[in-house]
Predict the structure.
Amino acid sequence: MAKKKGRDIDEILRQWPFQPGVISARIVRAKDGREVLQMRVEMGILQMETENRPDGERPGGADTYLDFVRQETADLGSTAVLTPEQCDELDREFLQYYHRRICWLALRQFDRAVEDADHTLDLMDFVAEHSPNQEWTVSHEQYRPFVLFHRTQAAALAELERGGPEGAIEEITHGLGQIRRAYSVMDAEDRFDEDPLVQQLTQLQEWIRKQFRVPKTLAEQLEEAVAAEEYELAARIRDEIAKRQTGEA
């Protein structure tokens, strides 16, 4: 049988040079018409699907390996313990979603970045529940603040693009609370204030507040009312929040 002749990608690499320290990403159209996401890396190009698993695989017919392993362990419930093979496959999916998430952020596709961050957080939750040992759990949980940073940043900027500076500020407030809880679970709450990512989010929040002249949000007013035990005021603020969420005038 004749050996299949390969093709190099020299010309493609020359036309899209690698830039150290820069996340270079683009969306291109494949021959069959579908959109694919490409990321320039030092010695080549990563190509990813834009939906479901970035590598396009359908493990056991499922959209993602997380979906598949949930089906596999459903009968055992919380007693299920992941096998070494399942751990390896979950780690593959972690890495794939990381690469795609940072590309979405670089391309300002913020809603897509949020979606991929949520999948990674679901992976972490599943790992924490079914991990074979504490060491493997910690190897993932140490990145939870980082993933939450990406999610919070993307959600806030998505809100800002839609013309909602108040919503952006609330997304950051919510995200900072989640990051604080993550450090608390790791018994490392003292690291929260020192985290450069936390400082970036705080600076972004203050920039939005000043740039768009946003007073205290309803969520912040509610928090203050509850802390001051002004329960009637808190009730009125909750009513106003509910009206806004349902689109009432």
